[in-house]
Model the fold of this input.
Amino acid sequence: MIFLQNGCRNNHLRLLLAMTILASQSQTAMGLDFSNPLEQLKLIKPSRNSLILNQENLKLNIGFRLFNKGKVSFEEAIKSEIRNHINPIIQIQTVHSDEMSLVTGSSIKSFKFQVANTPICNAQVKAHHQGNGQAFLIGNTPQINASEAYISKEWPNKSNSVDTFSTALTEEGVKGSFQIISASKCYFVRNGGLENVWKIRGSFAGLPYVGFADEYEMYSFEKAYFNVEGTAQLYKSSPSNGQVLESTPIFDLIGDGTLNTEFLTSAPKGYSRVKSDTHTFSYVSSSPQYDEVASFVYAQQHQKYFENIGFTWYGPKPMVIKVHEKPNGESNNALFMPAEGGSVPFPTIFIGDGDGEVLDNLPKDADVVSHEFGHHVVYKNLKSTRGESLILHEGLADFFVFSKSGDACLGESICPVGTPICWVDQCLRTAENELIYGDNFYKHSAPHQKGQLISGFLWDMNLAGTVPLAQLERVVLRAVDLLVEDSGIEHFMLALFNADAELYNGANRDAMLVAANNRGLSDFVTKIGEAGTAIPLPVDVQQDSSLVLTPGNETEKDDSDEPFDRFLGKYCGTIGVEHSSKLQLFGLFLFFMMPFAAMGIMPKPQPIKVKKNTNPK
Done:
């Protein structure tokens, strides 16, 4: 069988050549008798623009006729056949290749091509001389116009071509610092001609890529690594409730033995990164290495959860997971820092260890790193960390943790006995609460605690069974897409109804109205349209200021809120203009909880009354 086929994604002719020569049953002393094999050739129907080898021409091929008589080798016969279908300026080069499997009486020959001793970078043919009397050819011959003649011309500048390579990949979304690995000259066959290019290997954030470029154009590129799967011995979510270590899959590792994917990388403090040639990570749970593995894997699990409900990565990658840190000098905390360039080129999660008295097991509990990863998702649209924007950030990051796990208790393994900050049944925070917007508890709570209003409002619909959780999480994620950089609660509520109208034709509208009313949020959902219709913008503030919030700012004027506003301005960073540029130097942080040192400035709230979860996911 002999056929040539255009199979190149870049629309330049790619030749797929396959030939089967059927031998007669008789054999000679040299092994195989190819007497008159070409009478039995079969042609495969070609695709459009394919080039068919003419059977009459094959019969006249001297190389195969001499091979049939035992006068030349199989290699020379193949070269003779290939020469009939390439431009005379092209030289054929036999490439030695070790076969992975040994079969008696069979051999494989590999051929590449060059012009004036410079290789052609996108053409190769292999010939298989089978022991059963057949020969098979497959590969890409360089399809250069018959009129093309070799004309020596100056090679493009290497440095400029490397710049083209790095710039093109960056524009394609490949992120990270670039380092060149190698660059060599070759010809690239395109549209029947030869292009002088550099074959360039380079790495971005440690991941290798290869491509062909000149000073002005990238001709082709691809990643030069393969993702592999690994395993880790981990608790399912935390070292609590009798959980035992179990084998847990790790996906999409780049294959260098470390915890490194396109999107995530580990960075422990105080010791070298874990490494396993087999990508099997098993450590005792009391070891710092276990913490590195656990935080990385739990972050990846939350990433996969978000991808399953519609999230796509944005911005620089990979996200850096740093364990055994002291976020803002405090071991009893974790924080997310968005990529802002300069000293923070990648989104980063910092996780403390806990001191065993206030908090404990922070790297070992899936809720901790998952909450911080949730900030990364929400931050795509909601970028302010003040006032109601921060409340939304915390409540939404918590909700997605609850939705993924089916458990409304956040961080149940991190609260030591007697800790002053885990208010309810060893939960740092919970969605199963009776918090009402504007009530005394709400007014005297920190933003993380106020965020329980948002997570509780959403979780109520799951507990009541009025909105399927699989729908609710998608509606919430879509609502996040509709937020502006400094949205407050009213924006979120209207975005939520709009998202439900878009995704489910408003099927959950009535249930959401009931849940909003139960949480004191009914004033935020003004002029809600009928099911399946678009929802108007908020009423104008000049018409009724009591119904409209200033996005990104608290509406309550209770004096007890002011100390926390001042605290947030210093430690959580700000985009707003109210804060001085001096305070903005601290950068943007989104904490797992407020640093414990700040708790003393707030009146301690009364415990939340918890409703039992009767409808787990």
Notes: The first strand starts at residue 91 and ends at 95. Confidence is low (pLDDT under 50) at residues 1-60, 536-587, 594-617. The chain has three domains: 37-140, 158-223, 230-601. DSSP finds 14 helices and 18 strands in the chain.
